Amino acid sequence: MTDSPGDRRMRLGPYVLGELLARGATAAVFGAQRSGPAGFVMEVAVKTLHGDALRSIAHVRDLVLEARAAANVVHPGIAQVHALVDEGDRPLLVMERVRGWTLRAVRATAALTGQPVAPEVAVALIRAAARAAHAIHDGGVVHRDLSPDNLLVSRDGHVKVIDFGAAAWELTERVRARPPPALDATYAAPEVSLGLRVDPLLSDNYISPATTVTSPHPARTS
Ligand SMILES: Nc1ncnc2c1ncn2[C@@H]1O[C@H](COP(=O)(O)OP(=O)(O)OP(=O)(O)O)[C@@H](O)[C@H]1O
Ligand SMILES: [Mg+2]
Protein backbone atom coordinates (compact mmCIF):
# COMPACT_ATOMS: atom_id res chain seq x y z
CA MET A 1 0.00 0.00 0.00
CA THR A 2 1.55 3.33 -0.93
CA ASP A 3 0.34 6.89 -0.82
CA SER A 4 2.40 9.25 -2.92
CA PRO A 5 3.13 12.67 -1.37
CA GLY A 6 0.44 15.16 -2.24
CA ASP A 7 -1.91 12.40 -3.38
CA ARG A 8 -4.22 11.37 -0.57
CA ARG A 9 -5.69 8.50 -2.56
CA MET A 10 -4.65 5.03 -1.53
CA ARG A 11 -2.76 2.98 -4.11
CA LEU A 12 -2.94 -0.79 -3.83
CA GLY A 13 -0.93 -2.44 -6.60
CA PRO A 14 -2.47 -1.25 -9.88
CA TYR A 15 -5.57 0.08 -8.11
CA VAL A 16 -6.00 3.65 -6.91
CA LEU A 17 -8.92 3.93 -4.52
CA GLY A 18 -11.11 7.00 -4.95
CA GLU A 19 -14.53 7.89 -3.62
CA LEU A 20 -15.87 5.86 -0.70
CA LEU A 21 -19.22 4.55 -1.96
CA ALA A 22 -20.33 2.70 1.16
CA ARG A 23 -18.90 1.51 4.45
CA GLY A 24 -20.47 -1.25 6.53
CA ALA A 25 -19.39 -3.02 9.70
CA THR A 26 -16.72 -5.10 8.01
CA ALA A 27 -16.48 -4.06 4.34
CA ALA A 28 -16.16 -0.85 2.36
CA VAL A 29 -16.77 -0.20 -1.32
CA PHE A 30 -14.72 2.36 -3.23
CA GLY A 31 -14.79 3.77 -6.70
CA ALA A 32 -11.31 3.04 -8.07
CA GLN A 33 -9.09 3.14 -11.12
CA ARG A 34 -7.01 0.29 -12.41
CA SER A 35 -3.97 1.49 -14.27
CA GLY A 36 -1.88 -0.43 -16.79
CA PRO A 37 0.78 0.05 -19.45
CA ALA A 38 0.76 2.92 -21.92
CA GLY A 39 -1.72 5.03 -20.00
CA PHE A 40 -4.34 2.30 -19.70
CA VAL A 41 -6.95 3.26 -17.11
CA MET A 42 -10.13 1.39 -16.25
CA GLU A 43 -12.81 2.52 -13.85
CA VAL A 44 -13.79 -0.18 -11.36
CA ALA A 45 -15.40 -0.62 -7.95
CA VAL A 46 -13.42 -2.29 -5.19
CA LYS A 47 -14.87 -4.00 -2.14
CA THR A 48 -12.47 -4.63 0.69
CA LEU A 49 -12.42 -5.31 4.39
CA HIS A 50 -11.45 -2.84 7.07
CA GLY A 51 -10.45 -2.85 10.71
CA ASP A 52 -10.41 -6.14 12.58
CA ALA A 53 -12.17 -7.84 9.66
CA LEU A 54 -8.87 -7.69 7.74
CA ARG A 55 -7.37 -10.12 10.22
CA SER A 56 -10.45 -12.30 10.53
CA ILE A 57 -10.19 -15.59 8.68
CA ALA A 58 -14.01 -15.83 8.65
CA HIS A 59 -14.47 -12.41 7.03
CA VAL A 60 -11.74 -12.98 4.46
CA ARG A 61 -13.33 -16.34 3.62
CA ASP A 62 -16.73 -14.64 3.23
CA LEU A 63 -15.26 -12.14 0.76
CA VAL A 64 -13.64 -14.97 -1.18
CA LEU A 65 -16.94 -16.87 -1.30
CA GLU A 66 -18.73 -13.71 -2.42
CA ALA A 67 -16.27 -13.26 -5.28
CA ARG A 68 -16.49 -16.91 -6.28
CA ALA A 69 -20.29 -16.88 -6.27
CA ALA A 70 -20.49 -13.71 -8.39
CA ALA A 71 -17.87 -15.04 -10.80
CA ASN A 72 -20.25 -17.89 -11.67
CA VAL A 73 -22.58 -15.45 -13.38
CA VAL A 74 -21.86 -13.45 -16.51
CA HIS A 75 -24.82 -11.30 -17.45
CA PRO A 76 -25.43 -7.62 -18.21
CA GLY A 77 -27.81 -7.53 -15.24
CA ILE A 78 -25.13 -8.14 -12.65
CA ALA A 79 -22.08 -6.05 -11.79
CA GLN A 80 -19.37 -8.24 -13.26
CA VAL A 81 -16.58 -9.43 -11.00
CA HIS A 82 -13.21 -8.72 -12.61
CA ALA A 83 -10.82 -10.15 -10.05
CA LEU A 84 -10.12 -11.11 -6.50
CA VAL A 85 -6.62 -10.00 -5.60
CA ASP A 86 -4.47 -9.65 -2.54
CA GLU A 87 -2.69 -6.31 -2.38
CA GLY A 88 -0.67 -5.35 0.66
CA ASP A 89 -2.25 -8.18 2.68
CA ARG A 90 -5.65 -6.78 1.83
CA PRO A 91 -8.14 -8.79 -0.25
CA LEU A 92 -9.75 -6.70 -2.98
CA LEU A 93 -12.88 -7.76 -4.80
CA VAL A 94 -12.62 -5.83 -8.06
CA MET A 95 -15.77 -5.38 -10.10
CA GLU A 96 -17.57 -3.35 -12.69
CA ARG A 97 -18.33 0.14 -11.40
CA VAL A 98 -22.00 0.99 -11.74
CA ARG A 99 -22.66 4.70 -11.88
CA GLY A 100 -26.19 5.19 -10.72
CA TRP A 101 -28.37 4.71 -7.67
CA THR A 102 -29.60 1.95 -5.42
CA LEU A 103 -33.29 1.16 -5.67
CA ARG A 104 -33.58 2.40 -2.11
CA ALA A 105 -32.34 5.79 -3.27
CA VAL A 106 -34.69 5.75 -6.27
CA ARG A 107 -37.62 5.01 -3.98
CA ALA A 108 -36.55 7.62 -1.42
CA THR A 109 -36.34 10.26 -4.13
CA ALA A 110 -39.77 9.29 -5.40
CA ALA A 111 -41.18 9.57 -1.88
CA LEU A 112 -39.48 12.92 -1.24
CA THR A 113 -40.65 14.49 -4.45
CA GLY A 114 -44.10 12.91 -4.27
CA GLN A 115 -43.55 11.56 -7.77
CA PRO A 116 -43.87 7.77 -7.70
CA VAL A 117 -41.87 5.69 -10.15
CA ALA A 118 -44.00 5.55 -13.31
CA PRO A 119 -45.68 2.13 -13.74
CA GLU A 120 -43.98 1.47 -17.07
CA VAL A 121 -40.58 2.30 -15.57
CA ALA A 122 -41.31 0.07 -12.56
CA VAL A 123 -42.30 -2.79 -14.88
CA ALA A 124 -39.11 -2.37 -16.91
CA LEU A 125 -36.98 -2.42 -13.76
CA ILE A 126 -38.81 -5.47 -12.42
CA ARG A 127 -38.38 -7.34 -15.70
CA ALA A 128 -34.68 -6.52 -15.79
CA ALA A 129 -34.19 -7.59 -12.17
CA ALA A 130 -36.09 -10.84 -12.79
CA ARG A 131 -33.97 -11.58 -15.88
CA ALA A 132 -30.82 -11.00 -13.84
CA ALA A 133 -32.13 -13.30 -11.10
CA HIS A 134 -32.81 -15.94 -13.74
CA ALA A 135 -29.23 -15.67 -15.02
CA ILE A 136 -27.94 -15.98 -11.45
CA HIS A 137 -29.94 -19.18 -10.99
CA ASP A 138 -28.70 -20.48 -14.34
CA GLY A 139 -25.20 -20.03 -12.91
CA GLY A 140 -26.12 -22.37 -10.05
CA VAL A 141 -26.31 -19.56 -7.53
CA VAL A 142 -29.11 -18.30 -5.28
CA HIS A 143 -28.51 -14.69 -4.31
CA ARG A 144 -30.60 -14.80 -1.08
CA ASP A 145 -30.30 -11.03 -0.47
CA LEU A 146 -32.12 -9.27 -3.28
CA SER A 147 -33.02 -6.01 -1.58
CA PRO A 148 -33.28 -2.34 -2.56
CA ASP A 149 -29.65 -1.83 -1.46
CA ASN A 150 -28.42 -4.65 -3.66
CA LEU A 151 -30.17 -3.63 -6.88
CA LEU A 152 -28.57 -0.68 -8.64
CA VAL A 153 -30.06 1.33 -11.48
CA SER A 154 -27.38 2.74 -13.73
CA ARG A 155 -27.59 6.27 -15.10
CA ASP A 156 -28.58 4.81 -18.46
CA GLY A 157 -31.41 2.85 -16.86
CA HIS A 158 -29.97 -0.63 -16.56
CA VAL A 159 -30.55 -2.77 -13.48
CA LYS A 160 -27.43 -4.34 -11.96
CA VAL A 161 -27.48 -6.86 -9.14
CA ILE A 162 -24.64 -6.51 -6.63
CA ASP A 163 -23.56 -8.04 -3.32
CA PHE A 164 -23.24 -11.80 -3.50
CA GLY A 165 -22.16 -11.77 0.16
CA ALA A 166 -25.14 -13.93 1.15
CA ALA A 167 -25.22 -16.14 -1.93
CA ALA A 168 -25.67 -19.89 -1.74
CA TRP A 169 -24.07 -21.91 -4.50
CA GLU A 170 -22.87 -25.38 -5.32
CA LEU A 171 -26.29 -26.23 -3.99
CA THR A 172 -25.84 -29.96 -4.28
CA GLU A 173 -23.24 -29.70 -1.55
CA ARG A 174 -25.47 -27.30 0.37
CA VAL A 175 -22.55 -24.94 0.69
CA ARG A 176 -23.43 -21.94 2.81
CA ALA A 177 -26.76 -23.29 3.95
CA ARG A 178 -26.22 -21.43 7.22
CA PRO A 179 -27.94 -18.06 7.53
CA PRO A 180 -25.96 -15.39 5.71
CA PRO A 181 -23.78 -13.19 7.93
CA ALA A 182 -25.31 -9.90 6.84
CA LEU A 183 -28.82 -9.95 5.50
CA ASP A 184 -31.66 -7.50 5.06
CA ALA A 185 -34.26 -9.49 7.00
CA THR A 186 -37.02 -7.24 5.67
CA TYR A 187 -36.70 -8.83 2.27
CA ALA A 188 -35.28 -12.27 2.95
CA ALA A 189 -37.32 -15.44 2.51
CA PRO A 190 -37.94 -17.34 5.77
CA GLU A 191 -35.82 -20.31 4.69
CA VAL A 192 -32.92 -17.92 4.06
CA SER A 193 -33.23 -16.26 7.46
CA LEU A 194 -33.39 -19.67 9.13
CA GLY A 195 -30.42 -21.01 7.20
CA LEU A 196 -32.42 -23.80 5.60
CA ARG A 197 -31.98 -25.18 2.11
CA VAL A 198 -32.88 -22.58 -0.50
CA ASP A 199 -34.71 -22.93 -3.77
CA PRO A 200 -33.72 -20.78 -6.74
CA LEU A 201 -37.29 -20.38 -7.89
CA LEU A 202 -38.70 -19.47 -4.49
CA SER A 203 -36.07 -17.91 -2.30
CA ASP A 204 -35.07 -15.05 -4.59
CA ASN A 205 -38.70 -14.32 -5.40
CA TYR A 206 -40.14 -14.34 -1.89
CA ILE A 207 -40.23 -10.60 -1.74
CA SER A 208 -39.90 -10.23 -5.43
CA PRO A 209 -37.93 -7.58 -7.23
CA ALA A 210 -41.39 -6.10 -7.81
CA THR A 211 -41.78 -5.24 -4.16
CA THR A 212 -38.31 -3.82 -3.91
CA VAL A 213 -39.06 -1.47 -6.78
CA THR A 214 -42.57 -0.32 -6.21
CA SER A 215 -43.49 -0.15 -2.57
CA PRO A 216 -41.58 0.39 0.62
CA HIS A 217 -41.96 -2.74 2.70
CA PRO A 218 -42.43 -1.80 6.37
CA ALA A 219 -39.63 -3.10 8.55
CA ARG A 220 -40.66 -6.00 10.75
CA THR A 221 -40.80 -5.20 14.40
CA SER A 222 -40.59 -8.79 15.65
N1 LIG B 1 -20.11 -2.42 -8.38
C1 LIG B 1 -20.59 -1.35 -7.74
N2 LIG B 1 -20.70 -0.16 -8.38
C2 LIG B 1 -21.18 0.92 -7.71
N3 LIG B 1 -21.57 0.93 -6.42
C3 LIG B 1 -21.46 -0.22 -5.72
C4 LIG B 1 -20.97 -1.41 -6.34
N4 LIG B 1 -20.96 -2.39 -5.42
C5 LIG B 1 -21.44 -1.84 -4.28
N5 LIG B 1 -21.73 -0.54 -4.45
C6 LIG B 1 -22.27 0.38 -3.44
O1 LIG B 1 -21.83 -0.03 -2.15
C7 LIG B 1 -22.94 -0.42 -1.35
C8 LIG B 1 -22.55 -1.60 -0.49
O2 LIG B 1 -22.13 -2.69 -1.33
P1 LIG B 1 -22.51 -4.17 -0.98
O3 LIG B 1 -23.99 -4.30 -1.00
O4 LIG B 1 -21.73 -5.06 -1.84
O5 LIG B 1 -21.94 -4.28 0.48
P2 LIG B 1 -22.64 -4.50 1.89
O6 LIG B 1 -24.11 -4.64 1.76
O7 LIG B 1 -22.11 -3.49 2.82
O8 LIG B 1 -21.92 -5.77 2.23
P3 LIG B 1 -22.38 -7.15 2.78
O9 LIG B 1 -23.89 -7.16 2.85
O10 LIG B 1 -21.83 -8.12 1.79
O11 LIG B 1 -21.70 -7.19 4.12
C9 LIG B 1 -24.08 -0.70 -2.32
O12 LIG B 1 -25.37 -0.55 -1.73
C10 LIG B 1 -23.80 0.34 -3.39
O13 LIG B 1 -24.28 1.60 -2.98
MG1 LIG C 1 -25.47 -4.94 0.25
Walk me through what this model shows:
By secondary structure, the protein is of the alpha+beta class. It folds into two domains: 87 residues, Phosphorylase Kinase, domain 1; 113 residues, Transferase(Phosphotransferase) domain 1 (Transferase(Phosphotransferase), domain 1). The protein has a six-stranded antiparallel beta sheet, covered by helices on one side. A three-stranded antiparallel beta sheet has the order 7-9-10. A two-stranded antiparallel sheet has the order 8-11. The longest helix has 20 residues. 32% of the residues are buried. The C terminus is likely disordered.
Q: Reading side by side through the largest sheet, how are the strands ordered?
A: 1-2-3-4-6-5
Intertermini distance: 44 Å
Structural class: alpha+beta
Number of helices: 6
Q: What is the level 1 CATH name of the largest domain?
A: Mainly Alpha
Largest sheet: 6 strands, antiparallel
- Overall pLDDT score: 84
Unreliable stretches (pLDDT < 50, length at least 5) are 216-222
The portion of residues forming beta strands comes to 25-35%
Order of helices and strands: EEEEHEEEHHEEEEHHH
Bound molecules: adenosine-5'-triphosphate, magnesium ion
* Broad shape: globular
